[in-house]
User: What shape does this take?
Amino acid sequence: MTLPPDHPPVAARRIGVLLINLGTPEAPDPPSVRRYLAQFLSDRRVVEIPQLLWQPILRGIILTTRPRKSAHAYAQVWTDEGSPLAAITRAQSAALQGVFGEEVHVAYAMRYGKPAIGPAIDALVAAGCQRILIAPLYPQYCAATTATVVDAAGDHLKTLRWQPTLRYLPPYHDDPAYIDALKASAEAGLAALDFAPDVLLASFHGMPERTLHLGDPYHCQCRKTARLLSEAMGRPIEVAFQSRFGRAKWLEPATDTRLAALGKAGQSVAILAPGFSADCLETREELAIRGKEQFAAAGGGRFAYLPCLNAEAPGMAMLEALVRRELAGWL
Assistant: This one.
């Protein structure tokens, strides 16, 4: 059909895939970290305290003290390409684009910080994507992570007159492709060590314990991931939860407490973070640097941090398989 001369330009129809990770400040300095934390910690799903109580604490204490400390931590892991999380997610997006070709447009966004979800959706629509797969890169479902992505995408759709059709990548904590990728990555990491660790410790990001009692499946899904990986590797894997914040009771055992106990016992340890799709502050600084220091201070033996799946072959093969499955009927 020939369009009339005054018809607005119409882009060729394509399919969009939007990879989404948690987020990162734009620079490892206090002002950038303050902006990032203000957005992140103001999300009602992240901090489930009434805003009238929480905002004075956030604005009066946390945002005046924490940014400088966090900026120092970010500076220790910052790269020439920016934060590890942003650089790796960008690399994952580029690798996936190379697999799917021109019919599929792959982009990435951050739930907090930039590139933001709303502008990323707009860019995909402008490129002709009327169908978009939103892919939160969180293997285990958590209201404070996965659900906030759905919230943000839905909020942005409310601003659009012509809305694209959306699908969402479901949690993949027990998917065989994910377990196989973790196994391949962990075994390659262990094979590269010059020692055989006494303990293999899987550290997942912590959450307040009350989230478990409120019905969040996160704790159970983390445990199931570790169990399936242990069975696949044929060796025991301990589970711990990191990044405690505030005074509330969090999921246990705590990673730092467990590392101290293992160090005191003179054990050697290899630690991995199966809940993170890409290395970030919580893995490269909290585990690989501070975790190692805590372990050594307690008298521990050999210590190794095993990287996340990142944009390496096992992780990308898994991501391609998951995305192809979710695009069934569109491609």
